[in-house]
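Expect chain and fold; see below:
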Amino acid sequence: MYIYGASDQGRVVIDIIDAYEKIHGVFDDNPDIDEVLGYPVLGKVPPDFVFDHQLFIAIGDNIIRKRLADAYEFRAKFATIIHESAIFSKRANLDEGCVVMEGAIVKVNCHIGKHVIVNTGASIDHDCSIGDYVHIAPQSTLCGRITIGEGTLVGANAIILPGIKVGKWCRIGAGSIVNVDISDGQTWIDRGLKTAKTIK
């Protein structure tokens, strides 16, 4: 496998897979990073580089992850990673380029789109639909029949109640409780008030 990304997310992914998966190379655009967890960083991907093994884009920023996936979709086959401690229903679907991290749970009839991060201890209950390039942060909880639009970030320890629809490229603040639908591009921040606020 090749890894794109040698910073925070890259270290997390390498730590998950290097016990069982050969890492053929790590790429990163930052010229100041020349090593990560003992692996040499090869710099930018050369224009004529041939990916003879699967590529995983280990970038936490949803916008950058989408840009890179678009750039390499015709040159590489994308890897998908599920940690052995995760619980992933045999009746759920997972698209290419995703990672499901330690202790995460994905229940029956869920669909997880492309290049999604289901982070440590996150829980996605039955019949949820998660769009491409979403990040479900650590310990967040999605109850049943939830829809999350493309590119949305669900912050750590956030709770989204059953049946809620969250639009594309939204941001759900850490620790928030979401109890109403959220339109595209909005930010939801819940600071413990009775009525949470949506901010465009």
User: Anything to note?
Assistant: The chain has a mean pLDDT of 94.
